[in-house]
Amino acid sequence: MSRNFVLKFFKADSLPREWYNRKFPKSDSLEKQVEAIIETVKEKGDDALINFTEKFDKISISREKLRVSSKEIEDAYRKVSCEQLSALKSIKERIETTEKILLEKLRGIEINQNGIRIKITTKPIESVGCYVPGGRAAYPSTLVMAATPARLAGVPRVVVCSPPKTDGSVNPLTLVAADICGVDEFYRVGGAQAIAALTYGTETIKPVLKIVGPGNKYVTVAKRLVSKVVAVDMPAGPSELLILADETANPKLIALDMSAQAEHGPDSVVGLITTSEKIAYEVMRELSRIAFSASRRDTVTRALANNGFIVLCSSLDEMIRLANEIAPEHVEILTENPEELAGKISTAGLVLLGQYSPASLSDYLAGTNHILPTGGFGKVFSGLSVLDFMRRFALLECSPDGLIKTLEPIRVLAEAEGLPNHYLAIKGRFENE
Fold it and tell me: What does the alpha-carbon distance between residue 169 and residue 431 come to, in Å, rounded to a whole number?
């Protein structure tokens, strides 16, 4: 690729509509391919998993090797450094601290009014499957983000599926992450076939009640297709970062953050929305320098060329409007008063304020979860949390005085809806008194 690499550049009023609401692209051929994989796994079980692993991952494995053994996990500890182990534990501790506070707040809800007492009660989902991308890359941090809140919620059975490396093994740091997070079962299976196995089960893998975690387009389509059978968390596909900046921003930091996000993969979406033409061109220059010297240069430059963009706006309000329309996974606000703008962002998966709150921090050690909605789905989905691993229901207790006060309104509504026995069921409690 030429060193004269530049991003797509738009003015706000000329931004193509396809840059808004960037849903995952619909492809009939992709959907049919994923449907065929799911049906084959449903019909042939372990044999299908073995065949698809050989076809897609170019690895031959036996049925006995589908599940990672306890010895492999023990051996993994000898292959990671003390520093790596410490870093994993730090991620776990920080996400745990955030999620514990959220859980305590939820469990403490009790409402008393007009003789009616309502208490919110939670129970964990019985089994959860966590999909963790793998293969050529490794994402032990994603495993921690998925498994930690599941365990904190009290899920009795936490299962992980992740594709194997080219030699058939699983990244040792990912296995250590699974162990310190208390994962019950780990399977070296990836792609749509892993989602199918978690949904319908095979001879080796028992089905789960919910599937969480990010993945490529095959995983994302598979999760959508099986969602009528099993619960899923959210559409979490290729990573996204949108930076809002004014003339006070540091163009080098913007370029560094865009380059960091682009290294997730060639499908990553990275954009800058700014009110400063000077910042826009300085960021372009910095990106050309940084991207071409990056250690993952091919991935970074492909992502920037395919899905990188800069939009020049006439005002801060126009920046906010565009950001809310695009609804990206991450929004960084690098302006003179980031808090003021943050209050107006309503659709992002995560909002990061100021130059010392980069997306890279949230990917690892901020205490927020990095499994977030993408493709514009931040408009209706939230990031993964302990709440995704439990059912919430209410305990209700009413006093005689409280119930009798409801008689007349319930009579009116029951008659209006043609459900008179609802009213009689309440009235009957007072007829012999």
Answer: 72
Q: Pick from 213, 218, 159: which is nearest to 188 by CA?
A: 159
Is 422 among the residues known to form the active site?
Answer: no
CB of 46 closer than 8 Å to CB of 63:
yes
Give alpha helix (H) positions in 314-397.
Answer: 316-326, 338-342, 359-364
Contact between 196 and 222 under an 8 Å Cβ cutoff? The reply is yes
Kindly report, residue by residue over 28-81, the tens digit of the pLDDT.
889 999 999 999 999 999 999 999 999 998 999 999 999 999 999 999 999 999
Q: Is 318 a catalytic residue?
A: no
The string of pLDDT tens digits covering residues 80-106 is 999 999 999 999 999 999 999 988 888
CATH 3.30.160.100 fits 8-24+238-367, yes or no: no
Q: Are 299 and 265 in contact (CB under 8 A)?
A: yes
The single residue of 99, 185, 240, 329 carrying the catalytic annotation is 329
Residues of the chain within CATH 3.40.50.1980 domain(s) are 8-24+238-367, 28-113+121-232
Q: Which residues contact 170 (CB under 8 A, 6 or more apart)?
A: 68, 72, 134, 162, 164, 186, 188
In this model, does residue 4 exceed pLDDT 60? no
Check 240, 263, 330, 370 and give the catalytic one: 330
CATH code of the domain made up of 28-113+121-232 = 3.40.50.1980
Are the C-beta atoms of residues 297 and 319 closer than 8 Å to each other?
Answer: no
Distance CA 394, CA 109 (A): 10
Edge-first strand order for the sheet with 390-398 is: 110-113, 116-124, 390-398
Q: What digits encode the pLDDT tens for the residues 120-153?
A: 888 999 999 999 998 667 899 999 999 999 999 9
